Amino acid sequence: MVVTAVRQSLLAILVLVSVFAASFAGSDATAQESRTQEIERSSSTIASIRSEIDDGNLEKADEFEVTLRELRDGSRQRLSSIERELEAVRVQADLLGPAPGENEPPESEIVASERSALETQRAGLNGERTRVSANIYETGELLTRLSGARVGTLYRSLLERGVSPLVPKVWSEAFASFADVSSRIQRYFLAWGDRKRESGGYNFSLAIIIGALVLSLLMFGPVNRWVMSTFAVRIEKRKPTPPRRVIVAGMKMAARAAPGIIGGLIIIETLRAQGLLNGDGVAAARAFWIGILSILVVSGFTAGYFSPSSPEWRIAPIDAKRARVVSRIAISIAVVLSLKTLLGAIGIAAKADDALILLVRAAGAIAIAALIFALCRSVLWQVEGDASGGGWRLVRRFGRVFAIVIIAAALVGYVSLADFAATRICFVALFVGLAWILRAMLAETTWSLRKGLLPGEKKNDEAVSENFHFWSRLSINVILVFLLAPVFAVLFGVPRDAVGDIAGQALFGFNIGGVHIPSVAKLLVAGVVFVTVMAVTRLVQSGVQRGPLAHSRADIGVQNSLITLLGYAGLVIALFASISALGFDLGNLALIAGALSVGIGFGLQSIVNNFVSGLILLFERPIKVGDWIVTTSGEGTVKKISVRSTEVETFDRSSIIIPNSELISSTVTNWTHKNKIGRVIVPVGVTYDADPEKVRDILLDCAKSHPLIVAYPEPYVTWMDFGASSLDFEIRAYLNDISKGLGVRTELRFEIFKKLKEAGIEIPFPQRDVHIKSVPEGFERSSDKPALSGNGDHNNA
User: Fold this and answer.
1) pTM (predicted TM-score)
2) What are the residues whose beta carbons fall under 8 Å from the beta carbon of 443, sequence distance 6 or more?
3) CB-based burial of residue 366 (10 Å sphere; 0-12 exposed, 13-18 middle, 19+ buried)?
4) Is Signal among the key words of this record (predicted)?
5) Are 662 and 621 within 8 A, CB to CB?
6) Could you confirm whether domain 586-672 is CATH 2.30.30.60?
7) Which of 202, 212, 287, 570 could bridge 345 with an S-S bond, Cβ 3.0-4.6 Å?
8) Residue 590, exposed/middle/buried by CB under 10 A (0-12, 13-18, 19+)?
9) Is the CB of residue 250 less than 8 Å from the CB of residue 304?
10) For all residues of the chain together, what is the average pLDDT?
11) Which CATH fold would you assign to the domain 675-797?
12) Is 230 left (phi over 0), alpha (psi -120 to 50) or beta?
C-alpha cells in the first residue's frame, strides 16, 4: 500500500511537470531547431575549410584559424548545454523508475507516453552531442594541421638563401635606412615634446620621467642588499653543499633581477602615462626592458655560478681568473642578444628598410656565434690536475662547430637561419639555467620539509634518505619538463595558439583511435582523490590500532584482521572515488564485471581463488597473524595475510609464501588458534631395577616445580610400556604458552636427569646379547680368549 501511494504521488508530480513543460515546449522546440541549424552550419563551414586545406590553399590560413577557433568555442558551449539537458532527462527518467518486465503488469498510459517522450528526447540529444563532439574534434584536427603548416613554412623560409651581408649594396641601403629611422625617431620625440608644451605640461612630464629613471636606478642598491642579507648571506654561513651552492647562485641572480623587474615596470608605465609610448613604442620599450632584465639575470647567475670572490661557494670547477673571463663572455652574449632584439623592435616600429634589419640580424648572429666560440675554448675550462680539461668536452666541441656554422651561414646569405639558431641557443641556455636553479631550490625545500615533518627519523638511515632523494628529484624533474616543454615548443617555431590548443586538449581530453582519453586534469584529480582516500585510510587504520584496539582485549590476530579489512575497504572506496572523478558512470561497472567474469573463467581463476580465500581467512580467522601453524608446505609463525598469499616465517628465519587457497583447502595445524595453551611430552626410560612409584613421584615433582607449567590441567605421568631395555614413562604437562615448549622440555630433561641420578635410578641404554650358534673352521673356542679376534691376516680362536 505504501509503495502504491508513493508511486501515485510521483505520477501526480510527473503530470504537473508535464503540464508546465508543455507550456514551454514551443520555445524549447524553437531553441532546439536553432541549435540544430547552428550545428549543421558549423559542420558545413568545417567541411569547406577542410577542402581548402586539402587543396593546399593556405593563403587565408590566418582567417581559417580565426574561424575554426570561433566554431570550436561555440561547439563547446553547445556541448555543455546538451550535457545539462541530458542530465535533466536522466533525472526525469529516474523518477519514472525502471520499465516493467515481461511478467510484470504494464504501466499506465501517462507513464508510458512520458517514458517514450523522454527516450525520444534522449536519442535526439545524444545525436546532437555526437555531431557537436565531431565538430570539436575536427576543428582541433584542422588547427593542428594549420599549425604544422606554419611550422613547415617557417623552417622552409629558414633554409632559403637570401642576400649576403657582405654585398656592398646592402650596406649602402642599410645606412640610408638608418638615417631615415634616426630622423623618424627624432621627429617622434619632438612631436611628443611639442604636444606637451602646447598643453603646458612638458616640464612636469619630463620631471616625472627623470624621477622614474632615478628611482629605478636607486632601487638596485637597497633591493640587492636586502635580498642578499635576507637569504644569500644566511645560507653562506652554513656548510657549502651542491644544492646550497645553487641556491646561493639563485639568490644572487634574484638580487640583481628583482630591481630590474620593478624598475622596468615603473619606467614603462610612467612613459605610457605621459603619452610617450604608443603601440609600436610600447613594443620597443618592452624589448629594451626584457633585454636589460636578461643582462641582469645572466650577470647574477654568473656571479653565483663562478663566484670569483668566494671559492668555497663556486660551482664551476675553475679558478677565479678563468671564472671572471667566462662571466664577461656570458654577459657579453646577453648584451649582444638584448641589443639585437631592441634594434629589431625599433626597426619594425620605425618601418626600417629590409637591408637594415638584415644587417642587424646578421651582425647579432655573428657576434653571438663568436662569443660562443670564445666561451667554448678548452683553456677556459681546464682544471688543475686534470689533463682532459674537465667539463663537458663533447659539448664544448659542439659549441665551437655550432658557432662556425652560424658565422658561415650568416656570411653566405642564410641570415634568417643564423639568427634563428643563435637566438634560440641563447634562450635555451637561459631557460635551462633557470630550471636548474629552480630544481635545486625545490630539492632543498622538500628535504627541509621532510626533516621538519619527520624529526624522529634515524639520521643514519641512508637507504630511506636515498629513496627520498631519488623520488623527490624524479618528481621535480618531471614537473620542470612539463613546464619547459611549451616554452621550448614556442622557441622552436610552434605557434603559441597551437601550444594553447595542446594544453586545452590536455585539460578537456582527446581521442586516440576513436577512444576518448580523459583530460590530464581529470587524471591528476583522480590520482589526488585516490592518494587522499588511501592516506585517510592509513590514518584511520593507525588511529584504530593505537586507540580502541590497543585498549581492547582482542588478540593480535583479530586486530590485524580488522586493520587489513579496513585497508581493503579504503582501497575499494578509493578506486570508486577515483573512477567517479574521471567521469565514468559507476552504473556501467556491471559491464566491466561481466567482462572480468569472462577473464576469470579463462585465466584468473587461481588469482580470484586466492583473493576470496584471503577474505575468508580474514573473516573466519582460522589462522591469524602471530599463529604457529603446521602445513604441508612447512611450519612457522604467520607474519602477514595479504590479498593473494600468506607469509609464514619458519623457525630457521626463512619465509614461506603459501597461497591462501592452500590454507583453505588443505589441513592446517594451528597451535595457537583459540589460545596458546599446549601440552608438552617428555619420554623417560629407567632400568627394571627401579621402583616405578618412586619414578612417578620424581617426574611429577619435576613438572610441578617448573614455573611455566600450569596447575590445571595438572601434569601427570603415564607408564607407557615395558621396553626392551627399560621401563618407559612419559611426563605430560600443559603450558600457558606453547611457543615456549622446546625450552620447557629441555629444562625438564635437565631436572629429571639430576633427580634420577640423586635417587640412584639409572637411565639404561639399549643392550644386545649375541649368541653364536656355529664357529667357522680354523677358530677355537676358549674360555680365556675372546670368542672372536683378529689381527691383520692372521685369525686366532
Assistant:
1) 0.62
2) 243, 469, 472, 473, 476
3) buried
4) yes
5) no
6) yes
7) 287
8) exposed
9) yes
10) 78
11) Alpha-Beta Plaits (3.30.70)
12) alpha
